[in-house]
Every structure is written in C-alpha cells, then in structure tokens.
Amino acid sequence: MTKDVRVRFAPSPTGPLHIGGVRTALFNYLFAKKHNGTFILRIEDTDQNRYVEGAEKYIINALNWCGIPYDEGIDKNEKFGPYRQSERKHLYKQYAEELIAKGHAYYAFDTSEALDAHRKDHEEKGKTFIYNWHNRLKLNNSLSLSTEEVQAKLDAGEDYVIRFKSPQDETLHLKDIIRGEIKIDTNTLDDKVLFKSDGMPTYHLANIVDDHLMEISHVIRGEEWLPSLALHYQLYDAFGWEAPEFAHLPLILKPTGKGKLSKRDGDKLGFPVFPLEWNDPNTNEVSRGYKEDGYFAESVVNFLAFLGWNPGTEQEIFSLEELIAAFDLERVNKSGARFDPDKIKWFNHHYMQEQFNEDLAEAFKAQHAELVDIDNEYIALVIGLVKERAAFVSDFWELSHYFFTAPTTYDEKASKKAFKDGTKEILTQVASIIEANKDFTAETLQNEIKGWITSNEIGFGQVMMPLRLALVGALQGPDVFDIIYMIGKTETIKRIQNVITTL
C-alpha cells in the first residue's frame, strides 16, 4: 500500500462491548498488523445521555483479554490525542461553520414541535417527511431567512442545529472494498444534522473530522453504517479532504440465521454475547461473559474471524499470527454470518487440548473446594486422562470426580448390565490379583488381569464392566488400568469390596 495503514475501532461507552463489536475490532487489528499499520482505539462519547460508567474500561479490558490490544489511544502513544470525543468537542464547531461558509451546510432553527407537526401532517397524507432539497426553503433555516434574520436569531441565543446541505439531482458513485461500487441518488438523502443544539457534534461530523485529523487510511466498520456512507463521502468532498477507503462488514445473525444477533438471543439459548462478564451499574443486572463461562480467548478470536471471512482453504484452526498472515478484506463476505454456539464450543474443545495440564489443574482446583489439599501434580495427571472429552474446565469434575472420591451410588442401568451370576467371585479374584501385584503399574496390571481372563476363558466384558463400575460408579471414563494406577492399590481394592457388598 502506498500510504501508512491506520485503522480505528471507535465504540461508544454505552454498555458492554457486544461480540459484534469485538469482531469489528478484530478485523481492524488483523488488517493493521497484516500491513504493518497502526490499530487505534477512539471512544465516541458525544452522546453523554447514554454514557455508562465503567463501559470504557470494560472495552479496553475486553480487547486486552482477546489479545488484540490497541497501539494508539487513551493513555497509549497519544500521537493524535485526545482520543475521547467529549474531550475534542472544541474542535467540531469550527468545522461545522467552515461547511456553512463553503455553502455545504446551514443553520436550522426549527423546533422539535414544528418538525413533529410536519411529520404528522405527512403521515396523514400517506407520505414520509424528509428534510432536504424539496422543502428546506419552506422551513425555518438560514437558506430561507435573510442574513439579518439569521444573525438576529443567533444573537438572541435561539436554539439551532447545523444541517448538511445534500445536493439535488446528482448520482454518487461510492466505493466499498467488500461491496464494490454503490450508486446513490442524492434526491433520496435527507439533510442530516451535523451539530446539535446542545453544542455537541453528531456522530457523522465528529467521525469524519477525527478520522481526517488522525490520518485514518481505512474505515472498517459494521454494515449498519452503510446508509451513512453517502453522507460521509460528501463530507470529505465538501471539506476538500481525501477520503479513506471504506469496508462494511456483514451483520452477525442469530443462530436461526434470521435477524441480527442480540443479548436476548444469548439469554434465550444459553450463551454469552459479551467477551467479559458485565455488571450493569444502573440495574445491577449481571450479563455472562465468554471469559467467565470458561472460553479461551484464542477460541473466541478464532471463531469470530470466521464470522464473515473465509481464508479460501479448508483450514479452520488459526493462531493469531496465522490469521494476520491470511487475512484479506477481499475475502470478507457481503452476506450476514450466522452465529453458531456449537461451533465456538468446538473451537474451545480444540484449544483445551493445547493447554498445559498444570495450568488447567490450577483453574480446576480454584473451582472445587474438594481439591484444595490434593497435590497439583496428581490433578494435572488426572486432567491428562480426561481432557480430550472436555470443552471447559467446568467439565472436569463430571469427567473425573471418581479420581478424588469413591462412588457412593452406582448407575442402575449399568449395574443390571454389569452384575450377573458369578460377578462377585470374578471381582474377588481380580482384587486378589491386584493385591498380589508387586510392580504396580498400569501396564503390568493390564498384562496380568488380561492374561488371567484369557487363561480362564472368561469374556472380557464379564470382568471389565463390573470392575469399571466399582471404580467409577458408571460405565464411563478413561482406561480402567490408568484409573487403578492413579487411585492406588488400597483404594482400588476398597472400591471393589464396596461394590460387592452393595450390589
């Protein structure tokens, strides 16, 4: 690329960062790193009425947990600071007034009551009220008033907004990296408000000014901003600035594939839609997070990368470095991407296998008071035997509890299947073989017991099923001889005797 790549993720601090926002941040990050560029975090907090305490910190923590930290932004390499729009509000009015001076914008003094009356009148006639070229000369603004009247209103301190003056009878030719060329008839556009009566800019003005001043080269954002593309192109043209390249990412859809994914979908179907747990300071409602639900950051990132992007190969498992190398905006789809809760669990199962057993043992131990006094090395060995069937650390207890506590009940269906006439005698003999074993390893135990089974022409199931039931309480778990070796000779014999007595 001929110019330095500078991209930004610009969320509003109105609550927790939705998983769709994380995907937008990820794609910006991947694009920046692919082209040795800069990933910037800017907080767009011009709407102070919707500001939520703690949301900004949450956004930063979420990006850091995902392993996609920003290069430039709040308290970090502040080359173009400040990075909160509320701290830049002194900049925007001068740019709005510059557009007025150039004839691309105008003061509008219409009250909200007057505009509501116009809308109601249009609705009664079966029409839609649009403030633009076809009616602006009839409304209360600096295009329909004399210079003296406008100045008098300004001097009197009347409330006003500044609107963009959309052109009439023109066709805009817009470019989007993902969607190609887009044609827009300017007659369908309304004169958007750029500067509000409360002295704050709207998203549109602040966004364009900040992107220009921060030398943003590419704007990679969600599809919901596509309707604003025409105005943003026109603003760049009106200022005489070079526009960045735009790429609008597809929506993340509900698991059913119909409609945009929402928190309600997660609540209904039992999965998080936020990267980290969020405690709403206004309602004290706690929303689940992927981190707290036991997902690895690598799983979330790998999964999100495939929501709308395809590498063009069969490969599904990508490290962050591999994603950076493979990522290309040209391979991002136009159509929405369906969110699949089962797929992200599949990714988590994969990344579970790559974790060190010692680290998993620490996490497992933290979840269960029963394990406090048990040696970490033993727990790590147990995890090594069961983790291939686990997707989360929280799965370990169900898969391995019998390594730590003897069964007190036995699965009824399994008991009927495993215990037959003669089972008591068989288990008694197996206990004797284990008791007599001098070289107590899983391998020698297996050789001795299987040798005894073969020489006595007993069916393997007649021995192995009741033995497993004695050790586990059900017909499940890893290799029986690994279980025996792990729990030890004394405990094994005790469990065999207990199942004989009980069943």
Automatic annotation (TrEMBL):
GO function terms (MF aspect): ATP binding; glutamate-tRNA ligase activity; tRNA binding; zinc ion binding
Cellular component aspect of the GO annotation: cytosol
Subcellular location: Cytoplasm
EC number: 6.1.1.17
Matching Gene3D superfamilies: 1.10.10.350, HUPs
Domain Aminoacyl-tRNA synthetase class I anticodon-binding residue range list: 368-500
Amino acids binding ATP: K263
Renumbered ranges of motif 'HIGH' region: 11-21
Enzyme class: ligase
Motif ('KMSKS' region) on chain: 260-264
Catalytic activity, as annotated: tRNA(Glu) + L-glutamate + ATP = L-glutamyl-tRNA(Glu) + AMP + diphosphate
Family named by the database record: Belongs to the class-I aminoacyl-tRNA synthetase family. Glutamate--tRNA ligase type 1 subfamily.
Subunit structure: Monomer.
Protein name: Glutamate--tRNA ligase
Organism: Aestuariibaculum suncheonense
Lineage: Bacteria, Pseudomonadati, Bacteroidota, Flavobacteriia, Flavobacteriales
Gene that encodes the chain: gltX
